[in-house]
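Q: My collaborator sent me two sequences in one message, no labels, and asked for predicted structures for both. Can we handle them in order? The first one she listed is below.
A: Yes, handling them in the order given. First sequence, followed by its structure tokens:
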Amino acid sequence: MKTLSQPTLLILSLSLLFLTLHFPPTQAKFAGLGIHRPNSPKQARQLAASAAHDDESGDFVTFYYNQTLDHFNYKPESYTTFRQRYIVNVKHWGGADTNAPILVYFGPEDRIDYAWTDIGFLTENAPHFKALLLYIEHRYYGESVPFGSWEKASYLNSAQAIADYAAIILHVKQTYSAKNSPVIVVGGSYGGMLASWFRLKYPHVAIGALASSAPILYFDGVAPGDGYYSVVTKDFKEDSKSCYETIRRSWVEIERVASKPDGLSLLGKKFKTCRPLRRTFDLKDYLDSMYAEAAQYNEPPEYPVSIVCRAIDGAPDGDVLGQILAGVVAYKGDSSCYDVYDSSPPTASDSAWKWQVYI
């Protein structure tokens, strides 16, 4: 019987454990895939509290790496660097002499202040595998914003991001003399895609990648393109059949109203849009993003899908768009206007997602 190597056993063991553990959903919207970037009340509270968050145990130590701005060109400006944040925990590490593994969490489209508390997969497995834990913040998020501004936002793409991760992993391995320590990269949603791409692009750096909720089968048309929205639809239909039917009828009703003289203006007034509507697609995209967020982050005790459907079902019958507006108010809050075009300036890292490029 052939004996499995230590790296192979590590991957198999982690893969089995990975199936039983949960990643909290990350903020995400893949262009053309319908995976939407949320801003749920729970996440908003976490983000607001993140500045005050601190690791009281002292096991997680923050470092900053002088990262190369552009990994793929040789122009003078390409050698510009910025400070990229990463966090290390060596509490359970078996040390370089034992070739103990390194588990690396790829920060997705968010700051990493809560990564070590929210991502239990790493902390729960570190003692078992005597692993060093490494958390890397994605460029242009949190404290890892080049120049502290959006001056070079053109360098915000997935290819640059995984090159960042490779540089920091190799730096950490050198720092801890861990040349022979196997590396497993881990991510969820967009971070899971980065982990998958990293394993393909840098197989000499990581022996394996674990990806949670990563839509890898959407690429190359392996999975049905409407798979995501099929689940969203199912969630609403299971919560309330009448709510589902109202939403389904609303798409036709939006087009019917838009076909009237000054129809877009009528729709804008109905939904209290902050700026005039340019096309019906913009309103529909705003609404379907809301439904997708509610379904993807349908967590207790809020249960956003139920919040939306109770409002829709509770509004007067006969006014389909009025019912939909009631759902918007219930989910988004009662506001003087609703920003269909999300015109907030890209001055904070949580606005970076809409500026990213995936190459």
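Q: And the one she listed second?
A: Here it is, processed independently of the first:
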Amino acid sequence: MVWVSLRTTRTDRRAPLCTPTTHCTTMSLEWLMDWSWSLDGLRDFIATGIQSFRDCDATALAAVACLLVLFVWYCYHVGREQPRTYATVNALMQSAEANGVQNGYVYCHSPECVRCTHHDGLNQKLYHNLQEYAKRYSWSGMGRIHKGIREQGRYLNSRPSIQKPEVFFLPDLPTMPYFSRDAQKHDVELLERNFQTILCEFETLYKAFSNCSLPQGWKMNSTPSGEWFTFYLVNQGMCVPRNCRRCPRTYRLLGSLRTCIGNNVFGNACISVLSPGTVIAEHYGPTNIRIRCHLGLKTPSNCELVVGGEPQCWAEGRCLLFDDSFLHTAFHEGSPEEGPRVVFMVDLWHPNVAAAERQALDFIFAPGR
């Protein structure tokens, strides 16, 4: 079937788009309504367009050329922009691969890393980073951070043994070993709603243990007894690409958390596995600016977390929040038949660290700075 124009002739259809008096005009609505969608009509339309282009003056052509140049420049500019922290999984994976990720685990190559190295010049380095941040942005809201860096040595040396962060102490934060679920309610509820998703991806990963002692991507940690394995998605503020590819839904979930620490060396997200008979030695975390969240995936009996001398038990599908700058330990004294204790661990901001402070701390403690 061919549609035929009811009112116009071929001469009508060839009416020029640009008249001698106005150079460039638009086609009338009536002309469009009466268009014949035949092959002849298509040919006539192309011929009309070519003729209209020829009739247009130099000013119109220059305007079109400028718009085309601006469009090309815009595409180039957008293409060169760096992706945001959780913009896409692949973008972060490529970034992390270029920053020293090997065998599914991030290795620190910098002798100046504040997370891993203790030295006399640490306070000067932190103060220099703070000054650089303030010059770029503002000193507004930096009072506690400035106070903390200025007197860091005194804070760390005079802290009671129950709470002694190894790297950085931010003063005037509320101090308690455990936090209520309401401290970061949105993120806690989001993690708990996705309990089955995280559990399924862990179970797929854990099947590899039947084939070898330590599958790729897993890290074995030092313990007085037993075995403690971790599978990092984010380690010290950096994505671990191969691991994220194997847990894509869990990794995407991190991007939906409002308070996840993902841009500085104090931020981690991993699956933590304790085999029966394992005891983790007592230790302190690096800072009090975060709270550590454990989502129970598998929680056999006789497993406990002890923070600041206070014991707590995990529960499957439930989050447990604590301040790991307190002296803490964990153990699994269950039978081998009960299997491992498994939690999904993610570091969240302490609820009393303000937004301006979070931005500054991300800058000061950026990975590799």
